[in-house]
Amino acid sequence: MGKTGAPVKGKIDTILQDVLSGGRLSAKDALLVFKNAGLHQLGRAADTIRKKHHQSNHVGFIIDRNINYTNVCTSGCGFCAFYKDKDDPDAYLLTTPEVLQKVGEAARVGGTQIMLQGGLHPDLKIEYYTNLFKAIKERYDVVIHSLSPPEIMHIAKNSSLGVKETLIGLRDAGLDSLPGGGAEILSDATRQRISPKKISAGSWLAVMRAAHAVGLFSTATMMFGIGEGIQERIHHLSMIREVQDATGKFRAFIPWTFQPGHTDIGGEESSVEDYLRTLSISRIFLDNIANIQGSWLTQGDAVGQISLFFGANDLGSTMLEENVVRSTGVSNTMSVDKIVHLIKSGGFTPVQRDTEYKPIRIY
């Protein structure tokens, strides 16, 4: 990619100049740019647009804990190395006291956000979650940024409730916002290949629209490098941008690469260039989402730092606990001191933020 003749190069230059002047990148032009623009040209354009959204050189991060409350899952996705069947000897379901202990540990080291995510457990109904959220809120001043769209759909079905009714019940019990998990690639052809039991692309988008309608903000994600075409990635970005145009309640977009270790699908991990190219086109295409997150978790520290020059303005969480990516054999870790050093050594100013991307502490 990136090696083009003069006519194509001229067209790419014109497209990017139009975007930098305030135009909106079309899906057709995004595909052309993704496939043919030089990596550094793409990165420079993404960096310029980042600076339009964020005039300062601040780079955010959040202290939180990702609590996987169960590894039991009926979905059995081919890209997941974390899930277990209910009768597996390693299957687990955390009790409320066990979750509260983990939340307390996070709160004591300055954690401001809890991300509860788990498998689609066949026995769990809405009461498990509402009781848990109420217990957390009674004891700790933390934001509950939890439950992806597949979990919401599963809870609704298990509880014989509608999606909106489920979201309202969870919101009233303490749910503050939704993470963007379960999006993978918003193409049903790819979803049928990698996760045939999981909700459709349309259902994922419908849950997000419903969440936004009842006042819940969320993030959006894309997991790529699972054999999808570049056109499918652009389609994914188009769907996210369309929802954001309608609701304005996606706070951030997080693209990350499929980790093939110990999964049924297997295969090769995406290259660094592919990651940076996808990150850059995400920043350029998603003109209505202010925050684009770099992924040190899947890419490691060095590429995480480099992502700050390719459109990212945030490095996500210090991840006091993370089990899903770790189950693939990838074990990148991050402390507050480490992430502060990583950001500073890249020439940026580290900012601890909250879930709403408001600063808590500037380093």
Write a structural description.
The protein is α/β, with parallel strands linked by helices and 363 residues long. The protein has one domain: TIM Barrel (Alpha-Beta Barrel). Helix content is 44%, strand content 13%. It is built from 14 helices and eleven strands. It has helices at residues 6-20, 27-36, 39-53, 96-108, 126-139, 149-158, 163-173, 188-194, 201-213, 230-247, 272-285, 296-299, 301-306, 336-345; strands at 58-62, 64-67, 113-116, 143-144, 177-178, 217-224, 250-257, 291-292, 314-317, 349-353, 359-362. The chain has a four-stranded mixed β-sheet. Strand 10 and strand 11 form a beta hairpin. The radius of gyration is 20 Å and the shape is globular.
CATH architecture heading: Alpha-Beta Barrel
Number of helices: 14
- Pick out the low-confidence regions: 322-332
Mean pLDDT: 91
Short description:
The chain has 363 residues and is an alpha/beta fold. Helix content is 44%, strand content 13%.
